[in-house]
Amino acid sequence: MRTPLIAGNWKMYKTRKEAFAFVDALKDLLATFDPKRVEGWICAPYLALVGLPEALAGTSVRVGAQNVHQDKEGAHTGEVSLAMLSEVGVEAVILGHSERRADCGETDRAVAEKTEAVLLAGLTPIVCVGETLEQREGGQTAALIAAQVSAVVEHLTRADAPEELASKLARLVFAYEPIWAIGTGKTASVADASTVITGIRATLTRGLGSRAEAVRILYGGSVKPDNLGAFLAERDIDGALVGGASLAPDSFAALLTVAVEASAS
Ligand SMILES: O=C[C@H](O)COP(=O)(O)O
Questions:
Q1: Is 34 a residue whose pLDDT tops 80?
Q2: What is the CATH number of the domain that holds 162?
Q3: Are strands 239-242 and 39-43 parallel, antiparallel or unpaired?
Q4: Of ligand 1's atoms, which has the minimum distance to the CA of residue 246?
Q5: DSSP summary character for residue 65
Q6: What is the pLDDT of residue 32?
Q7: What is the pLDDT of residues 84-107, one digit of tens each?
Q8: What φ, ψ does residue 158 adopt, rounded to 5°?
Q9: What is the spatial distance between Cα 127 and Cα 173, in angstroms, rounded to a whole number?
Q10: Which residues form the active site (predicted)?
């Protein structure tokens, strides 16, 4: 049984002051219910990460970043390493978000290398895949998503991959985020999201065999507390990657509440 996961992606929102005010308010809200049956993650901007895990201590909400460099260290101006993230208590990293693929030219290859580095460092990668509206209307969704997922799986299972990688693959998380649904208020239909996510699991099974069953696959794109339940009711949808609706403490707590209720039903 896969533990439901609600990951908030704050993107480039919240100063440190705003981030810590969010945590204070969230802790008050979480005092009234126990979201233990689900995992809640806040993926904050780098500067807000410092001190955030400590501020969330005593809750079941953990902290993630939104990107990392794949190298251990080096001459990479402006980049942040996994050791730097681990040192401040970060446990997960969003990789290959469509905004980074578009704004920063992140390739499937770079996303695959980052995924390997995150797994080897003992953190959880949340690997984003998704199609544009043009690609969807052109009937390319299934092939494109399969190619994005396969690029990661083939890299992780290549013949000369580090041996210890195999035992870490169950920690993989994928997020299917149709680009046209991000921040637009237009979600994919539950049926369409479910079809794509079932396809992702099939691609994972081809590459990973039975280990694919443990991999969690999230839906992302205009998820709100009032539409989350319908996605979570689908067998292969294990949670959500949420942007806008993760920015307010009451809305993030409401997402966790919906996930707890869905996991109980
Ligand atoms: O990473 C999160 C996604 O880009 C979804 O953002 P959104 O919930 O604001 O549509």
A1: no
A2: 3.20.20.70
A3: unpaired
A4: 8
A5: E
A6: 79
A7: 999 999 999 999 999 999 999 999
A8: -65, 160
A9: 6
A10: 97, 177
* Of 129, 222, 224, 252, best ligand 1 pocket probe by most atoms within 8 Å of the beta carbon: 222
Cα 242 to ligand 1 centroid, rounded to whole Å: 5
Q: Which of 99, 223, 224 to mutate to test the pocket of ligand 1 (most atoms within 8 A of CB)?
A: 223
**239 is known to lie in a ligand binding site:** no
Residue 8 beta carbon below 6 angstroms from any ligand 1 atom: no
Give the atom of ligand 1 at the shortest distance from the alpha carbon of 185: 10
pTM of this structure: 0.96
Q: Is the pLDDT of residue 159 over 90?
A: yes
The domain containing residue 238 runs over which residues? 5-264
How is residue 238 written in tokens? Answer: 């294990």
Query: What's the CA-to-centroid distance between 251 and ligand 1, angstroms?
Result: 14
Number of domains in the chain: 1
Which residue, chain included where needed, has tokens 């290549």? 158
How many whole angstroms separate alpha carbon 165 and alpha carbon 50? Answer: 28
Residue 42 CB contacts under 8 Å (≥ 6 apart), including other chains: 8, 10, 52, 56, 61, 62, 63, 64, 246, 252
CA distance 114 to 96: 9
pLDDT exceeds 90 at position 31: no
